Amino acid sequence: MPREITYNWLDRPAELTAQEALFVSRLKANEDAAYDELVRMYSGPMYHVAYRMTGDAAEASDAVQDIFLKIFRNIGGFKGEAALKTWIFKIAFSEILNRLRWWKRRHRYATLSLDESPNGNVPGHGVADAGPTPEEVLQAKERENAIQQALRRLSHEHRSIIVLRDIEGFSYTEIADVLGISMGTVKSRLARARADLKKSLMRYLSVRYL
Amino acid sequence: MRSLDCSSAQKLMSAFIDSMVTAAESESLEVHVTLCQACQRQLQSYKSMRSLLSRMERPPLPGDMVLETRVRLSQQRNKNFRARFENRLNYVFKPLVIPALFGVSLTMLFFGILLGCLADNTVLAESRLKEEPVFGLYKPVRTTDHTMLRFVSSDEQNLDEPLTIETHVGDEGRVIDYEVLSGPQNPEVDGWIREMMSLAEFTPATAFGRPVESKIILSFVAVRN
Which of A43, A70, A196, B44 has its CA 20 to 30 A from that of B80? Predict the structure, then answer.
């Protein structure tokens, strides 16, 4: 089923709730159940972000594991100035962008296959989904690859902000916290990133007149 | 209400689809797109793109990723727990190590010295027991060779029976006093004893290395050839 993002229209300030504070204290106390819960809650979104940023399943999986280790090493220093989610994704983006820079220096992009989706499945059309026709499956795969390629052509900065806002549905405040930029910069950077991306995806965009 | 040109309208579109514009900006843009088909298409494409991106399916998680993550996390946590425990131990015990080591060293030194002394005394006692099993640090008075020679070579007296004399020897080895315990009683023998005693010299007895007064029993027997 297509996933619909729930946007945070009110753009509430990102701050630590009482429930999160309790959860953080459990993490700081090295509680097994708390770490299991952390992995269960964040491994999916984190992998999704890592995959959209890197375009590579194995790389994204490695990144996720390293991100959790970093979270564990740094949780002691978490003071609760921001929400746990934004703090976690700040670490995640730091790790992912480091990896991208590392690979860029070694020209890794030439070796990555854009035709393969993670685990060899067509995104959006799992084995259990018997609904789509072969033609629709093919179109979906083509569209998915086109989006991934279009994302790949964006700069790291633009890709980050598109993934956070348009794919993961982060609020502007959360994006500002995660990327360490001001709200004004979020607005302007997002506008430029969307404009860039729109050029690449024009043939997949349906335009209706009002 | 300010009317927008196309350039300004397009700048607002990204924020507009996120409802991050003011009410006035929103109204201006809405009015502009009703009048400008190009901008209307632009706004539609923005909305369409956002919809396309938001509908992207989440890629399935690699089967072993969550498990591997948990294992690595668990390993790291155990490692850290052990390191923290070791650090805590160091933190608690390190300040005690130097004083404790110093105390143990002093104790060992003290016992070493004590045992050394005891061992020396034991050896000393053993060596003295070998030399002088009875007296230890006391050495009895002894006759000197020339005195004995004088006694033996004196053949002026004809002793019919054994003569026993208790002699009191001073710390200089000279006879202070004497008493005939048994033997012949006649003036000749008495004269001979008095002469011998006045000339006799002894090696005085010593106690803790110092000469002291002592007594010695002298016995004389006449030997007939």
Answer: A43
Per DSSP, A121 falls in state P
Q: Which pLDDT value is given to residue B192?
A: 83
B41–A207 C-beta distance less than 8 A: yes
| Topology adopted by domain A131-205 | Arc Repressor Mutant, subunit A (1.10.10)
Q: What number of C-beta contacts closer than 8 Å exist between A and B?
A: 140
Please state, for a pLDDT cut of 90, what percent of chain B lies above it.
24
Cβ-count burial of B31 within 10 angstroms (0-12 exposed, 13-18 middle, 19+ buried)? Answer: middle
Residue A7: DSSP 8-state: -
The rounded Cα B208 to chain-centroid distance in angstroms is: 38
Fold for the domain defined by A15-113: Rna Polymerase Sigma Factor; Chain: A (1.10.1740)
Residue B170, CA distances (Å) to B174, B198, B213, B215 in order:
5, 12, 4, 9
Domains and CATH numbers, chain B: 6-54 (no CATH), 60-131 (no CATH), 138-220 (3.30.2420)
Rounded to the nearest angstrom, the minimum Cα separation between B10 and chain A is 9
Confidence class of residue A9 from pLDDT cuts 50, 70 and 90? very low
> Which of these, A156, A43, A154, A44, lies nearest to A94 by C-alpha position?
A156
**Three-class SS state of A70:** helix
